[in-house]
Amino acid sequence: MDYRQYVESRKDEILDMLERLCRIPSVFVRYEPDAVAPFGEGIGEALDTMLEIGAADGFRTKNVKGHAGHIEWGRGEELLGILCHLDVVPAEAGQWSTPPFEPRIRDGKLYARGAIDDKGPAIAAYFAMRLLRELGVEPRRRVRLVLGTDEETAWRGITEYFKHEEMPAEGFSPDANFPLIHGEKGIMMMDFVGVRSEGPLESFHAGERPNVVPGEATVRLSIDLADEFRRFLSERGLDGDTDGRSYHVKGRSVHAMAPWKGTNAALEMVRFLSSHIQNPLIDFLKQRFVDGLRGEQLGIDHDDPETGCVSVNVGTVHYDEDGSKIGVNIRYPRGFDTETAFARLDQAASAHGLTRRMNVDLPLHYVSKDDPLVRTLMDAYQFISGDRRNGPFTIGGGTYSRALRKGVAFGMVMPGREEVAHQVDEHVHIEDLLEATAIYMHALHALLSGGDSSR
User: What separation in angstroms does the CA of 47 have from each of 41, 50, 116, 144?
Assistant: First the structure.
C-alpha cells in the first residue's frame, strides 16, 4: 500500500478535522481540579471534541477527570502510547495577519494557533490509527492516543492521567521535529517575587508564559523619558511608542528553548530603564539576565557536547501595587548541577530583595540512539521521506515523551522548516501534515503488527 497516496486521498477530511479543532481557543484559564473542565472551558471543549470524534469512529475512548483522555485501538497485553496535547499558548492580539482561532489556508499552509503545536500532529497521529484500521491492519498490541490538556503550563493534566491509567511500555510524542529526538534537556520553571519599591516605576507588564519569549512589554513611569525612549528605540532598531507616561516596546516571540532566536521585549525595556531609574526589579533583571541568555550572569552556564548548553528565558514580568513577579524558564543539559544552580539563583535573588519560588523541575530525558524503538521510528521516517541524511538528535524543548518510561519525540516539523510554534502566524505546511500522517502510519504498522509496513 502506498501510504502517501492513501493519505492524499483523505486530504480534505484531514484538513476539515484540523480546522474544527483549531477553532477552539484552548488556552489555559485557571486550574480548578474538581471542575468538569479543570483548565478552562476551551481546553475542555477541545478534549471533548477529540473524544467525540474517536467514539464516533468506533474507537474506545475515556475522559480521565477532565485532566486528559485517550483514544484506544487494538488488543493485547502490551500498550504503545502516542502522547499529544490539545492546549495552546495565548495568541498575541493584533499581531496576527488573520485571526488566530479562525483557520485560514493560503500558499499551501494552514494558519492557526495550534496548527503545528500540537493540534496538527494530534490529527496526523489520529488519522494514522484510523486509516490503518480501515486498511485491515490487526494490531498485536494496543495503542493509545493520549490527549493532554496542560502541556503548555505545568503538566498537571498528564500527571493526573498517569495516576489513574496504565503506563505504556514505550511510545512517542509528535510534538517536535523529524527525524527523531532521543534526548531533551531538563526544564526548570520558577518565579522571583518581591515587594513594590518607591520610585518612578509604576508598573511593568510583559509576557504570559515563562516558556515563551515575550513579544511585547509595557511600563508606566511617573517621569517623562519620551525623548530618551524614542532615541533608544531608534538605536536598537525596535518598534515601540510612548506618550510620556506609558512606554511600549515590541520584540519577537519564540520558544524558550532557544531565546537567542527572538527578541525579548521585557529585557529590551530593562535595557532602557536601567540607564535612567533605580529599582531592585530592574537592577536584578539587568545584572542577571539581559546579557546572559545562557546563564552566564547567574553563574549557571554549562555545555554538553550532545545535549547542548543552558538556556535562560525571562518569560513574564509583572510589577504593580501588589509587588513584583518574574517568571523564568531554564533548560539544562547533561552534567548540569541543579543544587549548585539553585544556590546561585537564591543568592542572586536575595541580593535584590527577591525570593525564588520553584514551580517545576523536569529532569533531563534520554533514550539511546541504538534502542529498537528509535530504529523502528527512524526506518519509518526514512522509508516515507527518503531522507537518510538527517539523524536522531537532542533538543532544549520539553515534550510529553519525558512522561513515558521510554519515549521519544517523533515529528512533525520537517528538517529545514522554520520553527513557528508559539509564534505569531503559527502554521503547518499542508504537504508536511500529510507526509507526517503517512510516516505515522508506517511506524504504527511496524510497532503494532511486527509486519512489513511497506506492503
Answer: 10, 5, 17, 15
